[in-house]
Amino acid sequence: MRESIESIRYLKADLKRVWGAQEPFPFAFLFAPFIWLTVWSNIYYRVGRALYLLPPPLRQLFSPVRLIQKRLLQLATGTDISERADIGPGFFIAHNGTLVIGQGVRAGKNFFVRQGVTLGGDGVRSGHPQFGDNVMLGANAVVIGPITVGSDVIVGANAVVTREVPSDCVVAGVPATVLPGRSGKWADKKHTLKD
Ligand SMILES: CC(C)(COP(=O)(O)OP(=O)(O)OC[C@H]1O[C@@H](n2cnc3c(N)ncnc32)[C@H](O)[C@@H]1OP(=O)(O)O)[C@@H](O)C(=O)NCCC(=O)NCCS
After folding, report:
1. Does 93 fall in a domain?
2. Which phi and psi angles does 160 have, rounded to 5°?
3. Which CATH number is 130's domain given?
4. Residue 165 and which of 26, 30, 60, 84 are 20 to 30 A apart at CA?
5. Could you give phi then psi for residue 131, rounded to 5 degrees?
6. By C-alpha distance, which of 25, 128, 136, 121 is closest to 90?
7. Which of the listed residues 27, 48, 78 is the one where a domain comes to its end?
8. Counted domains in the chain
9. Residues 6 and 71 in one domain
10. Which ligand 1 atom sits nearest the alpha carbon of residue 154?
11. Is the peptide bond before 56 cis (omega within 30 degrees of 0)?
């Protein structure tokens, strides 16, 4: 039950982060659901996970609700995030578009993903990617397999990552390699939420 409540607390942190990325304008709060459509993905994922983390038999009781909201979101946005994925507070999805985050994926705080990102198993090895804090994934990045991606990492657009990634670096390409001399500490640099 404690974990379910935590999931809702994380939603508050997600929404705060999304709201903070918006230029303020008069009565902006009235237009909140239209500012970042991806907020609906956050709501689905956090509420779905809260229901999934309920103790049995409550979890089973709410299974149809989880299933229906998941499929509706998939239809509306193309987003498919497993409620078994464990993502920390401050989860930000930039732009709508197909996004797949499979079960078993874990990420720390301030996880930032763009459209087209796919995270999951590689279909060969068992296990899913684990991410540290402050990781940003560029458009259409694919991270697959039982690998660890450190904290403060930027993954370039269209990268395919299948091997371990150390902390504080930028990776890009197919297969992804570390770009020399670059810091992955993006939050306070040019790679901002408003890109
Ligand atoms: C990876 C990234 C963060 C690197 O930015 P950067 O540090 O400014 O890097 P540079 O542009 O100086 O490029 C460095 C080298 O990496 C290559 N490179 C950069 N991004 C690349 C990418 N996504 N895939 C393959 N190679 C890439 C460049 O061609 C360059 O190669 P060279 O040294 O042989 O000339 C950035 O290019 C990127 O992909 N950002 C994702 C942003 C995104 O998804 N935007 C979508 C908005 S909707």
Report:
1. no
2. -120, 115
3. 2.160.10.10
4. 84
5. -115, 145
6. 136
7. 78
8. 2
9. yes
10. 3
11. no
Q: Per mean pLDDT, which range of 73-77, 104-108, 139-143, 172-176 is the poorest?
A: 73-77
Atom of ligand 1 nearest to the CA of 182: 7
Residue 131 has pLDDT above 90, yes or no: yes
pLDDT tens for residues 134-174? 999 999 999 999 999 999 999 999 999 999 999 999 999 99
Mean per-residue pLDDT over the chain, rounded: 89
Instruction: Identify the domain containing residue 59 by its residue range.
Output: 1-78
Q: Is the CB of 100 under 6 A from ligand 1?
A: no
pLDDT tens digits along 27-41: 777 777 777 777 889
- Residue with the smallest CA separation from ligand 1 atom 13 is 179
118 and 175 within one domain: yes
90: CA distance to ligand 1 center in Å? 24
Q: Which backbone phi and psi does 87 adopt, to 5 degrees?
A: -115, 130
Looking at residue 194, what is its pLDDT? 46
pTM to 2 decimal places: 0.91
